[in-house]
Amino acid sequence: MFSLKNIQFPHFIKAAATHFKTDYPKFYKMDNLSKLALLSADILLKGNDKNEDTAILLFNRASSLDSDRKHQAAISDPENFYPSPSVFVYTLPNICIGEICIKHHLHSENAFFVFDTFNPKHLFFNADYLLKQNKATQALCGWVDFDDKNYEAFLYLVSENGIIAHQQEEIERIYHSHKSKATND
C-alpha cells in the first residue's frame, strides 16, 4: 500500500502520514509502535462511519521494547537520571490500541497479544468469538511490530458480512502474500 526503500523509520512514518493525510495532533508525540499502529488503523478506519462498536485485536513479537529501552536508558544513568512520563506511558504495547480508540472514538473490546511469530489461529479465534458473541460488529485485527530498525504492519477489518471469508487459512494466505510483496518491493 505504501513503501519507501532504504529510509529510516522517522522519515518513512512522516512521509506515510503525509501521504495518507493522517490528522491526529498527538501523532508526532507518540512512540514508534503507536505511530505505526495508528497510521495503519487510520487507513482502514477512514470513512468507516466512526463505528464505535469496532473491536481491536493486535499482536506482535517485540511488545513495547523500543519504548522500554528508551525508558531503561533514562533511569540507568545515575548522573542523568530523568525518567520521562512521555516515554514511560508507552512501555505497554496496548497503549497503541488506546491511541486508535481515542482518534476513532471506539468503545468496544480490545486486546494486545505477544507471540514469537504471526499467529493466524489465535487471531481468527479471538475475532470470530467477538463477532459471534455480538461483542462487536466488526474487528480491526492484525500484526503491528516495531523493534529498533525492523517494523511491520499487517491489519485488516473483519465483520460477519465481509467479502472474503474470515478463516484461519485465508488470514495466513493474505499475510504471506503481504510478506512476499513487501520483500519484493
Rg, Cα atoms, Å: 17 Å
Span between termini: 11 Å
How many strands, what sense, and barrel or not for the largest sheet? 4 strands, mixed
Helix-and-strand structural type: alpha/beta
Individual helix count: 7
Name the average pLDDT: 90
CATH class type: Alpha Beta
Strand order of the largest sheet: 2-1-3-4
CATH superfamily annotation: Thiolase/Chalcone synthase
Strand portion, in percent?
Answer: 15-25%
The helix-strand sequence is HHEHHHEHEEH
Q: Determine the fraction of residues in helical runs and give it as a percent range.
A: 40-55%
Tally of DSSP β-strands: 4
Q: What is the number of domains?
A: 1
Unreliable spans = none
CATH architecture: 3-Layer(aba) Sandwich
Q: How would the global form be characterised?
A: globular
CATH topology: Peroxisomal Thiolase, Chain A, domain 1
